[in-house]
Each structure stands twice: as structure tokens, then as C-alpha cells.
């Protein structure tokens, strides 16, 4: 709406949105930081599973070894 108020035509605004999303593929490049307001449950689960797989690949883990639950 602000662009239309500044004198740009509605079609140029829509074409710019198409150019940014489809041609430049900005949604895959400009990913917001992962925080509670930008994540859903699936993102959180994928992040956790990715961390677990990354930790299993590394032989030098950071921190103390885990203790058994008992």
C-alpha cells in the first residue's frame, strides 16, 4: 500500500513481488533467524533432529559426557 501511495502502479508492485520471489528466489536466501515467533512445531523438531545427527557425525563432542538416567 505505501508503494501505491507513493505513485507506483499496482501492477508494478505485483511484478516486483513476482520478481523477488520467483526470479531472485529471495525467500530461500533471506531466511529469518529461528526463534519462537518465526518457527512452528515442525521446524523445532527438524532443528533438534538435525542437531542430533550433527553430533553423531562429530567424534569430538563439546561438554561433559552424558550420565545415565538412573
How does this structure look, described?
The chain has one domain (2-54). The chain is 56% helix and 0% strand. The chain has helices at 2-5, 10-23, 26-29, 41-57. It is elongated. The mean pLDDT is 76.
Cα-based radius of gyration, to the nearest Å = 22 Å
What number of structural domains do the residues give? Answer: 1
Basic shape: elongated
Overall structural class, as computed from helix and strand content, comes to mainly alpha
**Percentage beta strand:** under 5%
Low-pLDDT sequence parts: none
- Main pleated sheet: none
- N-to-C SSE string, H for helix and E for strand: HHHH
Question: What oligomerization state is this entry in?
Answer: single chain
Task: Measure the end-to-end span.
Answer: 61 Å
Number of helices: 4
Tell me the number of strands. 0
The average pLDDT score comes to: 76
Q: In percent, how helical is the residue content? A: 55-70%
Concise synopsis of the structure shown:
This protein has 70 residues and is mostly helical.
Attribute tags:
70 residues; mainly alpha; 56% helix
List strands and helices in order, with pairings.
Blueprint: H1 2-5, H2 10-23, H3 26-29, H4 41-57
Amino acid at each position: 500500500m505505501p508503494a501505491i501511495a507513493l505513485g507506483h502502479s499496482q501492477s508494478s508492485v505485483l511484478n516486483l513481488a513476482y520478481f523477488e520471489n520467483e526470479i531472485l528466489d529471495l525467500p530461500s536466501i533471506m531466511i529469518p533467524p529461528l526463534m519462537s515467533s518465526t518457527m512452528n512445531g515442525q521446524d523445532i523438531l527438524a532443528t533438534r533432529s538435525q542437531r542430533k545427527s550433527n553430533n553423531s557425525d562429530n567424534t569430538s563432542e563439546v561438554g561433559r559426557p552424558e550420565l545415565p538416567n538412573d
